[in-house]
Amino acid sequence: MERPELSAAIDAAAEALVGVLDSAVHRHRLAVSPTQLRVLSLLRVRPETNVNGLAELLDVVPSSASRLCDRLEAIGLVRRTVDPRDRREVRLAPTAAAEVLLEEVRCRRHEAVRAVLERMPVRGQQELLGALVAFGQAATTAQSAATRSA
What we know:
Blueprint: H1 3-26, H2 34-45, H3 51-58, H4 62-74, E1 78-83, E2 86-94, H5 96-117, H6 122-149
Antiparallel strand pairs: 1-2
Helix pairs in contact: 1-5, 3-4
């Protein structure tokens, strides 16, 4: 397969995967929007994040990130804490309820992907696994190289 065809196939597969993941979540009418879910996911893996850092990650202005956090705090999914090293800094963290929600979403998504994989022949699943591992390694290498050159 030529590279442009391969790129188009990956793009189409990524779109299909996003559709599967989104439908797994939207069928259950969560109390949060996709953007709010993304915020919770980002805060889970970056526990020292403040509003400005979150704004950078989301590529929005700080006031928009702050309003997002206000809404999440109001429904008990985010807490603000003062940084003990610098009392002027306020850190954001997902609450226990947010952790439960994120785990529920993860489980729903895994089940949705598993249902699609079960429609594939075993050999196709094995080839996909090998290709995804190789793709992940290549992407990590490319990101590391880009970070070092920046």
